[in-house]
């Protein structure tokens, strides 16, 4: 396959994930699996703007729901980028991201300019990665043990929807361990000492986790 052919395939895959519904395979406790239809990444992002509430931003009481500003910013980035791409190929359709990206896919996969095709491929792949990371961020590693400094074992923290969920107080990252309750921090060089204090075996390898903590 030529480089252009590979880039065309990447564009189709990325734009497909952005604008088309997808499938999610769930494994149950008994080992069985089930496949569910899930909204496109763009529709999931729109839902996240209102923290999963109705698209007009209203709670059941009729009071306006707070916006998730990170989702708003990310959606605006894709909206403006999709418009810039679409108008490069004289798009004159309605201002809807899905239609713009569908137009981009057709035109970009006809384009013979490697730099342009590579730009579309890398940009749309970046949007997929950014939206996926926003919707399902990597969770920091947790140490389920009482904090040696304050004794707290678990705390409640807001998740991406704003709901309070219980998590371990001790959160691990390559930078160290921090107690989410008292904010006491142990650098990674003190992990072995921390393990001794907690009475656990030291076998943490955090080199793969660059976004924890």
From TrEMBL:
Domain DUF7341 residue range list: 4-135
Ranges of residues in domain DUF7340: 141-199
Pfam families attached to this UniProt entry: DUF7340, DUF7341
Name by which UniProt lists this protein: Uncharacterized protein
């Amino acid at each position: 396959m030529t480089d252009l052919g590979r880039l065309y395939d990447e564009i189709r895959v990325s734009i497909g994930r952005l604008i088309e519904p997808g499938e999610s395979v769930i494994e149950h406790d008994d080992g069985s699996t089930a496949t569910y239809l899930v909204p496109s990444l763009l529709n999931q992002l729109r839902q996240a703007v209102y923290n999963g509430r109705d698209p007009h931003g209203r709670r059941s009481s009729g009071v306006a729901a707070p916006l998730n500003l990170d989702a708003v910013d990310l959606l605006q980035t894709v909206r403006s980028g999709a418009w810039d791409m679409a108008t490069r190929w004289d798009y004159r359709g309605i201002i809807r991201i899905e239609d713009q990206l569908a137009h981009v896919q057709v035109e970009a996969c006809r384009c013979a300019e490697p730099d342009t095709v590579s730009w579309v491929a890398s940009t749309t792949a970046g949007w997929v990665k950014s939206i996926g990371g926003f919707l399902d961020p990597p969770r920091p590693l947790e140490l389920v043990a009482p904090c040696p400094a304050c004794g707290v074992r678990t705390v409640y923290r807001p998740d991406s929807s704003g709901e309070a969920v219980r998590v371990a107080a001790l959160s691990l990252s390559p930078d160290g361990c921090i107690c989410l309750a008292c904010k006491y921090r142990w650098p990674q060089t003190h992990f072995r000492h921390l393990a001794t204090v907690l009475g656990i075996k030291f076998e943490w390898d955090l080199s793969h986790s660059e976004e924890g903590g």
